[in-house]
Amino acid sequence: MRNLAIRMLESRDVAPISAAFSDLGWNKPLSQYEIYLSEQQKGIRTVFVAFVGGDFAGYVTINWSPSYPPYRAGGIPEIQDFNVLPRFRRQGIGTNLMDQAEQKISERSCVAGIGVGMPPDYGAAQRLYVLRGYVPDGKGLTRDGRPVRQGDEIAVNDGLVLYLTKTLTEGASPERSPYL
């Protein structure tokens, strides 16, 4: 993509990012990005932001210490909060952001993790992750971070998530991870 720039989140990005999502009616408050910036400065999270011709286009974060127990136990970083503004979709920006995140993760881990919602509006993300080589981690669905058990009655909303993993390093196998 022409004029695409991807870099780590900086303090000057916080307000424009929040405003871009607010303009869409999405609840992405300024405080969320201030927390991300603070976590990045502490080494807890890495945030990559994408700009096209100087305009904010999207971002992705890497949580180096995720709360999902199998990832935490296996030392698997989690790609979280991956968003590309609608007017910039289907232009390769999301692919470039994911490439950047996976490259960064590969410096520390042979496996990347990602969770994806199960409602239909996550269909594009579900397909993207599978096409990129992510496979279910074998733990089944979770609801608000807890395993869904057979017979549970659950609401299908943003809290219903399937976690996936991808092997990033040749010769490495997520099956060798102790959490699987």
For the structure shown, list the relevant keywords:
globular, 8 strands, 5 helices, Aminopeptidase, about 30% helix, about 180 residues
Order of helices and strands: EHHEEHEHEHEEE
Please name the CATH architecture. 3-Layer(aba) Sandwich
Radius of gyration: 16 Å
Helix content range: 25-40%
Largest sheet: 8 strands, mixed
How many angstroms does the end-to-end distance come to? Answer: 38 Å
Strand content: 25-35%
Average pLDDT number: 90
Low-confidence stretches: 176-180
Q: How many H/I helical runs? A: 5
Can you tell me the CATH superfamily?
Gcn5-related N-acetyltransferase (GNAT)
Structural class, by secondary structure, is alpha+beta
Task: Describe the protein.
It is a single chain. The chain starts with a strand and ends in a 13-residue tail after the last strand. It has one domain (4-176): Gcn5-related N-acetyltransferase (GNAT) (Aminopeptidase, 3-Layer(aba) Sandwich), CATH 3.40.630. Strands 1-2-3-4-5-8-6-7 form an eight-stranded mixed sheet, with helices on both faces. The chain is 29% helix and 31% strand. The longest helix is centred in the middle third of the chain and has 14 residues, at 93-106. Helix 1 runs antiparallel to helix 2. A hairpin with a 2-residue loop joins strand 2 and strand 3. It has five helices and eight strands, in the order E-H-H-E-E-H-E-H-E-H-E-E-E. The chain is globular and about 50 Å long.
